[in-house]
Amino acid sequence: MPARVLVIDDSPMLLDLTVTALRTAGFDASSAVDLASLDQALAAGPVDLILVDVNMPEMFGDDVVEFLRSQRKVNAKLLLYSDLPEKELAQRAKASGADGFVAKSAGIEAAVSEVRAQLGI
Are 114 and 27 in contact (CB under 8 A)? Predict the structure, then answer.
């Protein structure tokens, strides 16, 4: 059974591109555009990894990571995903308790590669 990956991003174009790339790479990828659709996606069953955009309209991604860990008790790997400078992204990942980060500027291949690495694939 393929690893289940959830991508949270408010950009429909980037969300579609990321989910498609993950599916092409063999993952069971799904998406969420806001907190309501995030709740629905989590209700669908356990997730192995969640890729979280940092700049969301309702809440920053690092806050989503903290919420998922503390309130929802999610055990999935959590990665911040952003176009922020890498140094700032690394600091946010560490402060929020995320398992890592992916810079959007590195390209979609880097995101898929980091997902593989985090899941030990």
Answer: no
Q: Are 49 and 26 in contact (CB under 8 A)?
A: no
User: What does the pLDDT read at residue 97?
Assistant: 93
Q: What is the 3-state secondary structure (H, E, C) of the chain?
A: CCCEEEEECCCHHHHHHHHHHHHHCCCEEEEECCHHHHHHHHHCCCCCEEEEECECCCCEHHHHHHHHHHCCCCCCEEEEEECCCHHHHHHHHHHHCCCEEEEHHHCHHHHHHHHHHHCCC
Q: d(Cα 49, Cα 59) in Å, to the nearest integer?
A: 19
Q: What is the pTM of this model?
A: 0.94
